[in-house]
Amino acid sequence: MSNSDAADDAHLADVPDGAGCTEIWERLSEGRDDERDDD
Questions:
Q1: Which of 7, 17, 26, 27 has the fewest CB atoms nearer than 10 Å to its CB?
Q2: What is the dihedral of CA 32, 33, 38, 39, to 10 degrees?
Q3: What is the rounded CA–CA span in Å between residue 5 and residue 9?
Q4: Cα–Cα distance between 12 and 20 in angstroms, integer?
Q5: Residues 6+ away with beta carbon under 8 Å from 38
């Protein structure tokens, strides 16, 4: 795996292996909510 590939999926680092679409969507949504709170 190249460094650029690692950077592309860095936002999924805390998603457990085997997680489904729903779990991934929820995790990403939580991150977006956190970013809005920082504004």
A1: 17
A2: 80
A3: 7
A4: 12
A5: none
